[in-house]
Each structure stands twice: as structure tokens, then as C-alpha cells.
Amino acid sequence: MQRDYYEVLSVAKDAGPDEIKKAYRKLAMKYHPDKNPGDKGAEESFKEVAEAYDVLHDQQKRQRYDRFGHQGVKGGSDGFSGFGVDLGDALRTFMSEGFGDLFGAGRGARGSRVRRGKDLQVRLRLTLEDVAAGVEKKIKLKKAVVCDSCDGSGGASGDARMTCLQCHGAGEVRQVSQSLFGQFVNIATCPRCHGDGQILKEPCKKCGGDGRTRGESVVAVDIPAGVTSGNYITVRGEGDVGPNGGPSGDVIILIEELEHESFERHGDDVLYSLPLSFAQVSLGAEVEVPTLGGRVKLQVPAGTQANKILRMKHKGIPHLSDSGRGDQLVRVVVWTPTRLDAREKKLLNELAQSENFKPPSDGKGFLGRFKDAIM
Ligand SMILES: [Zn+2]
Ligand SMILES: [Zn+2]
Q: What is the model's pTM?
């Protein structure tokens, strides 16, 4: 029994095209064979998702499906064969939606004159302050840009073309090699015309016919608050321009977070160690604590034990996925004086005699308090 296509994509019956596309994109990424190598279940899900999308994103097919169900979209010239989708078809659907480049596959098929430029990957180092606040960064790129002499066409005299001299228009070349097992014939895309079968009559002097030269550009990118090391941010169309006027690749920014000298990140919480004197933890104190958003007052209750963790709500790092933010955890470090004068020694000796200064002898009550160390 075949599953309902709306159910497969987890969308409502009246979902709009954008919603359907979004749902498809999410699921196709999840079940993509590159992400689930050898997983038959994921492959089946991927096909199922691709089939559902093929029908629901096409207005005519969707109408037929709504009226007649699965029977309405099976068979016929533009329907499916009835044996489900083959993986190759599913992958092509996926690629043709322009998501394929996420997995390193190029757009632009063999034999097409339009070739897309390369994606460029850059690393971007961010301080924890940048991560907490979000930041706009300008990134300077060395990349292939449109040749200003030929305007990207690659031709000295416009776009005039002739049959490729290497493959004589076939777009592919044969290479024959001998081996122990016999003769091998290898058919490859013609390196001269890249499968077009045609080459420029007279290549541009400046770029040699490629339509591109090396250049620089500055790309401005908004880094959302809450990113973390290993996150990628893709800026569409800012990578290498394609040869002969082809579309540009993307810039893929890999986030690297710099270590902070005072704060330690734990998810979206930040941990800060606060040194306090014995007197402060005993009597209680109001102290100013640095946070990623500036200094903030913190009340330390009287009788706070060493290593107690005080929680400063919403002083951590914003969540990337929603509007909330993490906390700042303040670990109390009791600072022990290393030098004492005679008067101080006398006072401390006196205090040490007091019952209140004696730690619990069995440690039971004290150990129990680790459970609620975080408040
Ligand atoms: Zn040129
Ligand atoms: Zn050729």
C-alpha cells in the first residue's frame, strides 16, 4: 500500500508550492544517499520523497493526484512507470532543484555550453563576543571574475564559433591504451571544447578564451548570533564566475570559534570562574561579573560553598534556532590568601576554634549538596 504523498512530505493538503519545496528539501537532504551510504531504508525514503515531490510540485499532476489518487499519476507519458522511482531519477530531480551542489556535484551537464564557476571555501574565525552578538563580516576573496576585455564571452570578436579542432564536433575523445588484459578504450569529454563540439573562432587575448581573469571581490555576510565551530554559511553566487559567462559558484564559509580567555562555551551556556574571598562567600556579597554583553551585578548568597555554580539566566549565547538564549554559569572559586601577617593569623586562629568553622566530620551532608550545586 502506497503512502499518501502529502503524508510523505508531512505537509497539509492545501500546502503552497514554497511549503512543499521546503519540506522536500529538508527530507531529501536527510535521506540523501551521500549522507546515508549503504542504508537501503534511507534510499527507499529518498525515492519516496522524490516521487511525492515530483507529483506535488507540478500543478497538473497534483490536481490529478488530488482527484484520482495514485492511479491518476501513474502510467502515461509524464507519469511514473508504476514501479516506483529509480534512484538515478530521484537524484536528478534533487540535483535539478539546485540543491545538488551541497554534495559537491556540479551543475551543468556535459554538452552544455554553460558551466558553473567553482565554489570557494573560506574559514572565518570569530570571537565568542562576535558569536554572542552576531556580526557582519566583510571577506576579501581572490577569485575568477568576468574578463573585462571580452565581457566573459572569451572571443576576441564576440561569440563567433567553429567546429572543435580536437574532437571534430563530437564533444568527446577516445583514448586507447594497452594493458595485460587487452585493449582499453576510454571515452572522455573533449578537453578542448569541454563537450561543446565547438570552440571560439578567435580567443580573447586577455583571458585566452576562458572569459575570466583572476580578480578580487569583497563579500559582506551577516553571521547570525549563536553559530558554532563547524557551521557552514553559504553565500549564493559569490564564488568563481563560470567560464564563458557561466553562472557563479557559491562561497562556503566555515565558522571557526576562537577560544576565549575568560569564558568557556558549553552549548549555548558559557562558564565563568569567579574568584571570591572566604569572607565574601561566608557573608554574602554583591559582585560585578563580566558577561559577553558587559558587566552585570550578581548576588552571592551568604554561606555559598566553593565550586557552587550560580546561574545567570539568559546571559549566555543566543540559540541559533529560536529566539531564546543560554545562561552564564558562574563557578565560585574560593580564593585562599597565600600571605598572612601576625594579626590576620591571630584572628584566623581564633575563628578556627569556633564550632561554626568546623566542616562536617563525616562529609555526608556536604557531599549531598553537590546534587544541587547548580541553582
Ligand atoms: Zn577575455
Ligand atoms: Zn572538442
A: 0.58
